[in-house]
Amino acid sequence: MPLVSVVMSVYNDGKYVKDAIESILAQTFTDFEFVIVDDGCTDNTRDIIAGYHDARIRLIVNEHNLGLAPSLNKAIRLSGAQYIARQDADDISLPDRLSREVDYLESHPDVALVGSAAIVIAHDGERRGVWPAIAEDLDLKWSLLFLNPFIHSSIMVRRSVVEEAGYYTARPEIAQAFVEDYELWSRVNRISRSANFAQPLLKFRQNPTSASVRTRPEHLRQRDHIAQENLCWVWGMRELEDGTWMRLRRFLLHPPGEDLDLDCGEVRPTVSLLESLHAAFCVKYEVPRKLAGLHRRRTYWQWARHAWALALRQNGRRSLRCRLALLAAGMRLLGSAGRLSAS
Fold first, then answer.
1. On the chain, which terminus has fewer CB atoms closer than 10 Å, C or N?
2. Residues 8-57: pLDDT tens digits?
3. Spatial separation of the C-alpha atoms in residues 139 and 153, rounded to whole Å
4. Are 74 and 60 in contact (CB under 8 A)?
């Protein structure tokens, strides 16, 4: 039995799938099987896959299109390796990706999931930049409360932890919005540790015809829904009070330079919510006191800088009172960070 099962679901990906397949077959690490699910393709994708005569490739054909999450669950259940690596049909793994991820998981038995930063490429393969990655477990757990800090096609995960967490969700609203990975990694991180390589191990293609782009409004709505579920889990609530998520989202996730109407009365309660959330987060994950203090101080600094950026960007959409409230919030957070530093 191979050590790694690389799983990939394809649906009418004939334009890019050749590069994806060859990037896996060219890996410096060779102890793997490549499980590819043809999810009801109607183009030439299956013919391209059939053209490879490599014993490591296992082709599974769905009679009907099932969708990404069910196809990945099928591939995982039919595979047999200790580690599961993801590969998307329009992305390209760099040659040492599998080797480095296997080495990391072998040397860090407490870590269940590892991913990486990525080189961003356009649909034609032209380099556009680098998608950075959050590296440390505690920062990843905190980020998961609001957003997905993992690039799906870059990850390798222990099979045993995927089984314990319950595989990709069967909830159709999550799967159809292509946020199944965010939902699964949120559950995985409640029971284990994670990491990201700061160095890119993948070329991530920004494809204007990808499923997540086509379904973007619903994708964002379901992403927000998962974030709210994560916050409920940390706070021990069945559901958030009215307006809580919108307050946090409007303050924390909004780019400073974009238009945003903020009521000056929102600012202080929102900062209090964030302080409460961070305290509950550290309790929920049983973060050691010293580490919790360091993380809180760093996080408060980030919030303070963000509040000042919101206050000072001249986009004409925030009142003077609102800007003054944001400046005051930044000073309050800065003072709290300073007291934490001195304690």
1. C
2. 999 999 999 999 999 999 999 999 999 999 999 999 999 999 999 999 99
3. 20
4. yes
